[in-house]
Design brief:
8 strands; disordered N terminus; 8% strand; 533 residues; 6-stranded mixed β-sheet; alpha/beta
């Protein structure tokens, strides 16, 4: 975009005769009308993109395809470009228009106000000492205009010195001294805030330790990767009692969600790959307790486990001794959990309609399968009912489902069986239909129990950060690293589920945990935590 002419230069270019002035006015009016039209169209397009982006974000983690991620990234880029262009044009217009001599009525703010909780720094620009009009010096203050701008100070490093004064007794020469303060990690020189920043950086913001080390070096702080790794390991050991407490809380539920995701693992004990490296695909499993959809008062929590493989023995070990409703996908490794001979009893399987919908959606998105499109439409009607009862009591949810969802389910089953019978078993629509019909008991269990959700999205959302982080840190360095990642993800995701800032909670908890009674460790869990004043 060309730079606008300064006002003085623009004045020199004004036409000298009336006819030319009229022509210029008409031309400028036309340009103004076109600019207004373009601005309006751009505003409409920005709003459309915002709505599309919000919808895509909602659906992204209910689908496994790369298409969803690419769509979100594309929409974000388009929206960013439009908003930047809009802001650039607005500022350019302001710069090219001379400021009016008289004050005008300020326009209503288009943006949200800055957070009230942030501290305010006042920079007062002194007013004139004499009147601008008559030169008089008897001025009185009648008010002030305040313009707020958001600012961020660079990170400030400091060394905290804990000084323990020594006193000698004049009578017996005995030396007295205050006890040494507890430290988050033994033999470590990192304070709790720094430790929390490193943990949150790696596991919440997905920054590998080598990137953090490089960032600190640019600020003049030399912390090599091995030092940061030692701190992470020591902090994980310090926080282990909280992980155990969260595990007990999750396994005390009558129902929760489960899912898993792959992670690359490097370790000496692993076989070499074709490229010569030693790597394998491990798994991170998650079990999410979230009673909020049916108005439950118990706090939500997420429990992660690492395993070298995806074998069914791992979820069986994770859930040994637990019985209840298990909502998950149709992974065959879960079959042992539903075995009638299992002790203390078989888990009650609840299916995920998002997985069913995804299979039909992938077929319908190109418009090549009217049957798949019809299936998506019918399933969406079920989700619309679920949105209307989200957060309601168990009995109310069950009653609404019997009244509104059951007729739709009955019609859907009849339609699926009729359509599937007319298709080749090898066709993709028939396979999608068969996927649902083979699991019809698990898929319709939500009709009888208001605690069961329609989808397993709670578990899929809990794996979102791992999917993002995997692009940055690529792999876990060892099985121990996988276990450590599972522990820290348990803490961070549980804090997020309870609307607690993970870094602030970790910092305060690391500062307090060694002095806190072990029998009262649950006081430090995110839903019970209160920052010290």
């Amino acid at each position: 975009m060309s730079s606008p002419n300064p006002p003085a230069q623009a004045a020199d270019n004004l036409p000298a005769d009336l006819a030319a002035a009229h022509a210029l006015i008409l031309a400028l009016q036309g340009e103004l009308a076109r600019a207004r039209q373009q601005a309006g169209e751009r505003a409409i397009e920005i709003e459309r993109l915002r709505l599309a982006l919000a919808k895509a974000r909602r659906e992204l983690y209910g689908q496994s395809s790369e298409r969803g991620r690419l769509l979100v990234e594309q929409l974000e880029l388009q929206l960013e470009e439009l908003e930047e262009t809009s802001a650039e044009n607005e500022v350019a217009g302001e710069l090219s228009t001379p400021a009016p001599a008289l004050a005008v009525t300020p326009r209503k703010p288009a943006r949200r106000p800055l957070p009230e909780a942030l501290p305010r720094e006042r920079i007062v620009h002194p007013g004139p000492c004499v009147c601008d009009r008559c030169g008089g010096d008897t001025l009185r203050k009648i008010g002030e205009d305040v313009l707020e701008s958001l600012e961020c100070e660079p990170r400030r490093w400091k060394v905290v010195q804990h000084v323990r004064e020594k006193f000698a007794c004049r009578s017996c020469e005995a030396v007295s001294q205050a006890p040494a303060p507890s430290h988050p990690i033994r033999r470590g020189r990192a304070g709790p805030d720094l430790l929390a920043m490193v943990l949150a950086g790696k596991y919440a913001q997905h920054l590998p330790l080598h990137r953090q080390s490089a960032a600190y070096a640019r600020e003049g702080i030399d912390l090599d990767v091995s030092t940061l790794a030692d701190w992470v390991g020591a902090a994980a050991a310090t926080l282990a009692p909280l992980v155990a407490a969260i595990r007990s809380h999750v396994l005390a539920a009558d129902r929760f969600h489960g899912d898993d995701t792959p992670v690359q693992v490097l370790a000496k004990s692993l076989p070499r790959t074709r490229s010569g490296g030693k790597a394998a695909t491990g798994r991170l499993w998650v079990y999410v307790r979230d009673d909020r959809p049916f108005g439950g008062s118990d706090p939500p929590a997420a429990l992660y486990h690492y395993a070298r493989t995806r074998a069914g023995e791992h979820p069986q070990r994770h859930l040994a001794g637990w019985a209840g409703i298990f909502q998950a996908d149709a992974y065959s490794g879960y079959a042992g959990l539903y075995d009638p001979a299992r002790k203390p009893g078989p888990l009650l399987e609840a299916g995920c309609w998002s997985h069913v919908r995804r299979r039909f959606f992938d077929l319908a998105k190109d418009g090549k399968s009217p049957l798949a499109a019809e299936a998506v439409k019918r399933i969406d009607a079920l989700f619309a009912i679920e949105r209307s009862i989200n957060g309601r009591a168990i009995a109310e949810r069950a009653e609404t489902r019997q009244e509104k969802s059951r007729p739709l389910i009955d019609d859907l089953e009849q339609w699926l069986r009729h359509a599937c019978a007319r298709l080749s078993p090898k066709s993709d629509p028939a396979k999608a239909m068969d996927y649902a019909l083979k699991r019809w008991g698990a898929m319709t269990r939500f009709l009888e129990d208001g605690r069961i959700c329609l989808s397993n999205n709670a578990a899929e959302r809990a794996l979102r950060g791992i999917a993002v982080g995997r692009r940055n840190w690529t792999f876990c360095g060892s099985d121990a690293g996988g276990d450590r990642a599972a522990a820290i993800y348990t803490l961070i995701e549980t804090a997020k589920l309870n609307d607690v800032d993970p870094q602030a909670w970790l910092a305060d908890t690391l500062a307090r945990i060694h002095d806190h009674p072990a029998k009262a460790i649950t006081d430090l869990l995110p839903w019970n935590w209160k920052a010290k004043p």
